[in-house]
């Protein structure tokens, strides 16, 4: 189990990715995102996760630069938006993201949503960028088992990561075990279900036992499932609190009780029905 924010899991191509990072979904471009990222970096985070559609890549890049932390000590992820899928468009969109971030290479690039019929062409562009050394690892986001099987039937490079909605109300058992079998790291976005889990009685009870917050219990549960996690916060005290999950361990029984909270319910869209950006 990881013992600190610097601890990493090794992706199937040998690249080391931190178990925990800061997500910046819905964090406003400009001062808010710059301060949020700087607070995380100052307090030991080394992994930052953004996306083209978040509209805050420039702020993330500015914070990285101003932090003074050597580039090679950080792990930066961004994602390709739906409207940019397809081979040529992907290559252009990647360059745009890199200019905004002000980086000369990326640690992880993800296809944000599968959509229906372009992700294989998109993946070919990802493979090219990967082979050209512009990205250290490539992956997908919001892919179900059937999307992964379809993609891998023609891919030369297997995705290293699949970032999906994952929390105690959406335990994704089948997807998690499929990804483990395939050596694809599963990563949780919205691990706290956008705050909707913070009043869950079982989680409150467990949190009290360990003198932790409900958020910390959920993030610890992620890690004990071998799932990478990227909680989002804009408040420094919360960013610090979210990372304080390395000094306690849930029992197997507690992990299983939390698993039983599953309702297959989502805070975000279902990957099979999302059309936003693809129209």
TrEMBL record:
CDD domains with a match to the protein in the record: AKR_AKR5G1-3
Region Disordered: start-end pairs: 259-279
One Pfam entry name: Aldo_ket_red
Record-linked Gene3D superfamilies: NADP-dependent oxidoreductase domain (3.20.20.100)
Keyword Signal found: no
Domain of life of the organism encoding this protein: Bacteria
SUPFAM superfamilies in alphabetical order: NAD(P)-linked oxidoreductase (SSF51430)
InterPro entries to which the protein is assigned, alphabetical: AKR, AKR5G, Aldo/ket_reductase_CS, NAD(P)_OxRdtase_dom_sf, NADP_OxRdtase_dom
Entry keyword set: NADP, Oxidoreductase
Compositionally biased spans, kind Basic and acidic residues: 259-269
Ranges where the NADP-dependent oxidoreductase domain occurs: 26-262
Keyword Repeat applies: no
Family affiliation: Belongs to the aldo/keto reductase family.
Protein name, per record: Aldo/keto reductase
Organism: Priestia endophytica DSM 13796
């Amino acid at each position: 189990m990881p013992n600190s924010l610097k601890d990493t899991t090794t992706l199937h191509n040998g690249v080391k990715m931190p178990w925990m990072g800061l997500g910046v979904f819905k964090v406003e471009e400009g001062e808010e995102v710059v301060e949020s990222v700087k607070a995380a970096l100052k307090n030991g985070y080394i992994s930052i996760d953004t996306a083209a559609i978040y509209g805050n890549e420039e702020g993330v890049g500015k914070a990285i630069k101003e932090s003074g932390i050597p580039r090679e000590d950080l792990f930066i992820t961004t994602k390709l938006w739906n409207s940019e899928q397809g081979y040529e468009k992907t290559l252009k969109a990647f360059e745009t993201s890199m200019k905004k971030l002000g980086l000369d290479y990326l640690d992880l690039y993800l296809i944000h949503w599968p959509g229906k019929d372009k992700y294989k062409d998109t993946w070919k562009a990802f493979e090219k960028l990967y082979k050209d050394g512009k990205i250290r690892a490539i992956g997908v986001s919001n892919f179900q088992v059937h999307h992964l099987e379809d993609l891998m039937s023609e891919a030369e490079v297997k995705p290293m990561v699949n970032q999906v909605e994952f929390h105690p109300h959406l335990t994704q058992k089948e997807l998690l075990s499929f990804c483990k079998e395939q050596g694809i790291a599963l990563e949780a976005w919205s691990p706290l279900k956008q705050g909707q889990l913070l009043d869950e009685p079982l989680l409150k009870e467990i949190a009290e036992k360990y003198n932790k917050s409900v958020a910390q219990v959920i993030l610890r549960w992620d890690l004990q499932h071998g799932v990478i996690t990227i909680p989002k916060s804009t408040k420094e005290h919360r960013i610090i609190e979210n990372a304080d999950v390395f000094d306690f361990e849930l029992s197997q029984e507690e992990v299983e009780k939390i698993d039983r909270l599953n309702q297959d319910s989502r805070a975000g869209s279902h990957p099979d029905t999302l059309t936003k950006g693809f129209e």
